[in-house]
Amino acid sequence: MKQGLKSIVQEENYFFGEFEHSLDSQRRIAIPSNWRKEKKTKFILLQGRHNALYLLPPNIFNDFIAKVRKVSFADAASSLALVRIGSVSQECECDSQGRISIPQKLIEQSGLKNQVVLVGSVTMIQIWSMDNWKMFQKSDQNDVLDVIQKIGERPDDLTSIIKGIK
Protein backbone atom coordinates (compact mmCIF):
# COMPACT_ATOMS: atom_id res chain seq x y z
CA MET A 1 0.00 0.00 0.00
CA LYS A 2 2.76 2.44 0.91
CA GLN A 3 4.54 1.79 -2.40
CA GLY A 4 1.28 2.52 -4.29
CA LEU A 5 0.96 5.97 -2.69
CA LYS A 6 4.62 6.72 -3.40
CA SER A 7 4.26 5.94 -7.11
CA ILE A 8 1.14 8.12 -7.36
CA VAL A 9 3.06 10.99 -5.74
CA GLN A 10 5.97 10.66 -8.15
CA GLU A 11 3.89 10.30 -11.30
CA GLU A 12 1.19 12.84 -10.59
CA ASN A 13 2.94 15.56 -8.55
CA TYR A 14 0.85 15.26 -5.42
CA PHE A 15 2.32 16.51 -2.15
CA PHE A 16 1.43 15.05 1.25
CA GLY A 17 2.83 15.42 4.76
CA GLU A 18 4.87 18.03 6.54
CA PHE A 19 8.60 18.35 6.99
CA GLU A 20 10.62 20.61 9.25
CA HIS A 21 13.79 22.02 7.75
CA SER A 22 16.41 24.60 8.58
CA LEU A 23 16.95 27.61 6.38
CA ASP A 24 20.71 27.69 5.84
CA SER A 25 22.94 30.78 5.75
CA GLN A 26 22.55 30.98 1.96
CA ARG A 27 18.72 31.05 2.27
CA ARG A 28 18.31 27.47 1.01
CA ILE A 29 15.95 24.73 2.10
CA ALA A 30 15.93 21.10 1.07
CA ILE A 31 12.85 19.77 -0.72
CA PRO A 32 12.04 16.22 0.47
CA SER A 33 13.23 13.61 -2.01
CA ASN A 34 9.77 12.07 -2.45
CA TRP A 35 8.52 15.49 -3.65
CA ARG A 36 11.18 15.68 -6.37
CA LYS A 37 10.48 13.77 -9.57
CA GLU A 38 13.96 14.20 -10.97
CA LYS A 39 17.38 15.39 -9.88
CA LYS A 40 16.89 18.99 -11.09
CA THR A 41 13.19 19.39 -10.24
CA LYS A 42 11.80 22.84 -11.04
CA PHE A 43 9.13 24.81 -9.21
CA ILE A 44 7.54 28.23 -9.42
CA LEU A 45 7.99 30.03 -6.09
CA LEU A 46 5.58 32.81 -5.14
CA GLN A 47 4.21 34.69 -2.17
CA GLY A 48 1.09 32.95 -0.92
CA ARG A 49 -1.62 33.56 1.64
CA HIS A 50 -1.21 33.57 5.42
CA ASN A 51 2.47 34.57 5.14
CA ALA A 52 3.33 31.28 3.48
CA LEU A 53 5.27 30.75 0.27
CA TYR A 54 3.87 28.52 -2.46
CA LEU A 55 5.95 26.13 -4.54
CA LEU A 56 4.01 25.13 -7.63
CA PRO A 57 5.14 22.37 -9.96
CA PRO A 58 5.38 23.58 -13.57
CA ASN A 59 2.35 21.56 -14.72
CA ILE A 60 0.09 23.34 -12.19
CA PHE A 61 1.49 26.76 -13.07
CA ASN A 62 1.13 25.95 -16.79
CA ASP A 63 -2.65 25.60 -16.24
CA PHE A 64 -2.63 29.19 -14.98
CA ILE A 65 -0.44 30.35 -17.89
CA ALA A 66 -2.88 28.81 -20.39
CA LYS A 67 -5.66 30.94 -18.89
CA VAL A 68 -3.48 34.06 -18.85
CA ARG A 69 -2.75 33.68 -22.56
CA LYS A 70 -6.46 34.17 -23.26
CA VAL A 71 -6.37 37.65 -21.70
CA SER A 72 -5.36 40.61 -23.82
CA PHE A 73 -2.01 42.07 -22.79
CA ALA A 74 -3.49 45.48 -23.62
CA ASP A 75 -6.14 45.18 -20.89
CA ALA A 76 -5.03 47.64 -18.17
CA ALA A 77 -6.41 45.76 -15.14
CA SER A 78 -5.06 42.42 -16.35
CA SER A 79 -1.68 43.96 -17.06
CA LEU A 80 -1.42 45.29 -13.50
CA ALA A 81 -2.52 41.97 -12.03
CA LEU A 82 0.09 40.10 -14.06
CA VAL A 83 2.81 42.55 -13.03
CA ARG A 84 1.92 41.92 -9.40
CA ILE A 85 2.08 38.15 -9.91
CA GLY A 86 5.31 38.32 -11.89
CA SER A 87 7.04 40.56 -9.36
CA VAL A 88 6.57 38.09 -6.50
CA SER A 89 7.23 34.91 -8.49
CA GLN A 90 10.33 33.16 -9.67
CA GLU A 91 11.32 29.89 -11.24
CA CYS A 92 13.61 27.82 -9.04
CA GLU A 93 15.42 24.56 -9.59
CA CYS A 94 16.62 22.07 -7.01
CA ASP A 95 20.39 21.80 -6.83
CA SER A 96 22.17 18.43 -6.72
CA GLN A 97 21.27 18.10 -3.01
CA GLY A 98 17.59 18.94 -3.56
CA ARG A 99 17.77 22.49 -2.21
CA ILE A 100 16.17 25.65 -3.52
CA SER A 101 17.23 29.20 -2.74
CA ILE A 102 14.63 31.67 -1.46
CA PRO A 103 15.09 35.38 -2.20
CA GLN A 104 15.64 37.59 0.83
CA LYS A 105 12.57 39.67 -0.05
CA LEU A 106 10.27 36.63 0.14
CA ILE A 107 11.90 35.49 3.37
CA GLU A 108 11.19 38.86 4.96
CA GLN A 109 7.63 39.09 3.62
CA SER A 110 6.83 35.60 4.93
CA GLY A 111 8.54 36.01 8.30
CA LEU A 112 10.68 32.93 7.74
CA LYS A 113 13.34 32.33 10.38
CA ASN A 114 15.82 29.50 10.91
CA GLN A 115 13.21 26.73 11.13
CA VAL A 116 10.56 26.34 8.42
CA VAL A 117 7.85 23.81 7.73
CA LEU A 118 7.23 22.44 4.25
CA VAL A 119 3.61 21.35 4.03
CA GLY A 120 2.09 19.20 1.31
CA SER A 121 -0.98 20.95 -0.03
CA VAL A 122 -2.05 18.15 -2.41
CA THR A 123 -1.17 19.93 -5.69
CA MET A 124 1.55 22.24 -4.36
CA ILE A 125 3.96 22.76 -1.47
CA GLN A 126 3.59 25.52 1.09
CA ILE A 127 6.52 26.88 3.09
CA TRP A 128 5.57 28.28 6.50
CA SER A 129 7.54 29.79 9.34
CA MET A 130 7.46 27.46 12.34
CA ASP A 131 5.54 30.04 14.43
CA ASN A 132 2.89 30.70 11.76
CA TRP A 133 2.40 26.98 11.17
CA LYS A 134 1.87 26.31 14.88
CA MET A 135 -0.67 29.16 15.12
CA PHE A 136 -2.52 27.86 12.06
CA GLN A 137 -2.70 24.34 13.48
CA LYS A 138 -4.18 25.66 16.74
CA SER A 139 -6.81 27.69 14.87
CA ASP A 140 -7.83 25.02 12.33
CA GLN A 141 -10.97 23.23 13.48
CA ASN A 142 -11.75 21.30 10.29
CA ASP A 143 -11.93 17.53 10.44
CA VAL A 144 -10.16 16.17 7.36
CA LEU A 145 -12.64 13.32 6.98
CA ASP A 146 -15.58 15.77 7.00
CA VAL A 147 -13.96 17.69 4.15
CA ILE A 148 -13.26 14.48 2.20
CA GLN A 149 -16.87 13.36 2.72
CA LYS A 150 -18.26 16.68 1.45
CA ILE A 151 -16.07 16.49 -1.63
CA GLY A 152 -17.16 12.90 -2.24
CA GLU A 153 -20.83 13.81 -1.95
CA ARG A 154 -20.58 16.84 -4.25
CA PRO A 155 -17.47 16.44 -6.43
CA ASP A 156 -18.71 18.95 -9.01
CA ASP A 157 -19.13 21.63 -6.35
CA LEU A 158 -15.55 21.62 -5.06
CA THR A 159 -15.15 25.40 -5.10
CA SER A 160 -18.18 25.93 -2.83
CA ILE A 161 -17.03 23.20 -0.46
CA ILE A 162 -13.52 24.60 -0.12
CA LYS A 163 -14.80 28.16 0.32
CA GLY A 164 -17.13 26.92 3.07
CA ILE A 165 -14.22 25.52 5.07
CA LYS A 166 -13.30 27.92 7.82
Structure characterization notes:
The structure is a single chain. The protein has helices at residues 2-12, 58-68, 76-87, 104-110, 130-139, 144-153, 158-164, and strands at residues 18-22, 28-30, 42-47, 53-56, 89-93, 99-101, 115-120, 125-129. The strands form 2 sheets. Strands 1-7-8-4-3-5 form a 6-stranded antiparallel sheet. Residues 1-10 have low confidence and may be disordered. It has one domain: Chemotaxis protein chec (3-Layer(aba) Sandwich). It has 166 residues and is α+β, with helices and mostly antiparallel strands. The radius of gyration is 17 Å and the shape is globular. It is 41% helix and 22% strand. The two termini are 32 Å apart. It contains 7 helices and 8 strands.
Question: What distance separates the N and C termini?
Answer: 32 Å
Oligomer: single chain
User: Treating each run of at least 4 consecutive H or I residues as one helix, how many helices?
Assistant: 7
> Which bin fits the share of residues in helices?
40-55%
Query: Regarding CATH, which class?
Result: Alpha Beta
What is the percentage of strand-forming residues?
15-25%
Q: Give the H and E element order.
A: HEEEEHHEEHEEHHH
Tell me briefly what this model is.
With 166 residues, this protein is α+β, with helices and mostly antiparallel strands. The protein contains seven helices and eight strands.
